[in-house]
Design brief:
The chain has about 200 residues and is an all-alpha fold. The chain has one domain (about 1-160). It has helices spanning about 1-25, 35-45, 50-85, 90-105, 110, 120-130, 135-155, 160-165, 170-200. The chain is globular. Belongs to the DedA family. It holds the Pfam family VTT_dom. This is VTT domain-containing protein.
């Protein structure tokens, strides 16, 4: 049902509808971003959308949603936190977000996008704490980009099995993110090692 709805949305509204869906979906539209991103990847593989255009529009919608959460936290965070704390489900999400923030600090913005529920509250809480926007954007947008690269690629390459991918989507995205992070760490260390060797030479 979710897949059919997303496909209809894309067919009727194109890139604009996709952007708005991802932007305002943060405010309660009951379709997980995992489903949307993988469906967009699948549709791109069918040439319904241009792959690069679809990827960029999806990413723009995601960053718009993250920025909106950050802005809400920065300007009206106090009354909203009081409101959320009165509701058990939101109170638990806030507590989980704070634990992640305490453990990983600004890097939690990158990690939170891989955790449904926290991906919107962590930016909101960092907005409330008045983290500089440049720092927020660096970590939040890079985490969203990595997440989208994994989700979009899964949908693009394995769209025929998208039901199974969605069923195990969280595990697949986490595995893909871990793999990508390992490669990033290896490349970073290799580059630093080469720089040190040049300094010693």
């Amino acid at each position: 049902m979710e897949l059919d709805y997303i496909l209809l949305l894309i067919e009727e509204n194109g890139y604009v509808g996709l952007f708005l869906w991802l932007w305002f979906g943060v405010f309660g539209i009951p379709v997980p971003n995992e489903v949307i991103a993988m469906t967009v990847g699948m549709v791109s593989s069918m040439s319904v959308l241009h792959p690069l255009g679809a990827f960029l529009v999806t990413y723009a919608g995601m960053t718009a949603a993250l920025t909106t959460c950050y802005t809400l936290g920065r300007f009206i965070g106090r009354p909203l936190i009081k409101y959320f704390h009165k509701r058990k489900r939101f109170a638990k999400i806030i507590d989980d977000s704070l634990r992640l923030m305490d453990k990983h600090h600004a890097f939690s913005l990158s990690l939170s996008y891989f955790i449904p529920g926290l991906r919107n509250f962590v930016p909101f809480l960092y907005g409330f704490s008045r983290l500089p926007f440049k720092t927020f954007a660096l970590f939040a947008f890079s985490g969203a980009l990595l997440w989208l690269a994994v989700a979009f690629t899964l949908g693009y390459l394995f769209g025929d099995h998208i039901d199974a991918i969605i069923l195990y989507g969280k595990e697949a995205l986490l595995a893909g993110a871990v793999f990508a992070l390992i490669i990033l760490v290896i490349k970073t260390r290799s580059r630093r090692k080469k720089e040190k060797q040049r300094e010693l030479a």
